[in-house]
Design goal:
The protein is of the alpha+beta class. It has helices spanning 16-28, 67-80, 122-131, and strands at residues 3-11, 33-38, 42-44, 54-63, 95-101, 106-107, 112-113, 136-137, 141-142, 155-157. The protein has a single domain, classed as 7,8-Dihydro-6-hydroxymethylpterin-pyrophosphokinase HPPK (Alpha-Beta Plaits).
Length: 161
Amino acid sequence: MSTQVFIGIGANLGDASATVAQAIAALGQLPDTHLVAQSSLFGSAPVDSSGDDYVNAVAELETTLSATALLQHLQAVELAHGRERPYRNAPRTLDLDLLLYGSHVIVNDDLQVPHPRMTERAFVLLPLLQLAKDIHIPGKGQAQDFVAAVADQRIQELSTD
């Protein structure tokens, strides 16, 4: 049985737009996983971080992988794109976050789902809502209900020209 999952994607080092596009393609190639949809690319100012603006997107997948196995694959994709973790919220070549794994709530040493800060980030909420306007965040409520709280965060949809 497959599970609907949403992955947050971000990059702000190198050719961030190309990296995000490559990451989305890589997500579609994961074992036992199908890329259902992808949001537009969005440009956003760093939040609790520094460096250049980020390019962000959200991908919707269907997978039979467990949440832990999926996380391992996401981390492998990050590493393949040169991801380093020198300190918390450091600028990055690629960041892949497991935002939602079906309606599951998962809390362990390696993984928290729903992603603990997703309702505080315009760069997550707006692309997510582009894909699933009525999405419910387990334990939190409707994603749409959190948009007003992030309205002061600078974000814009990037043209695809």
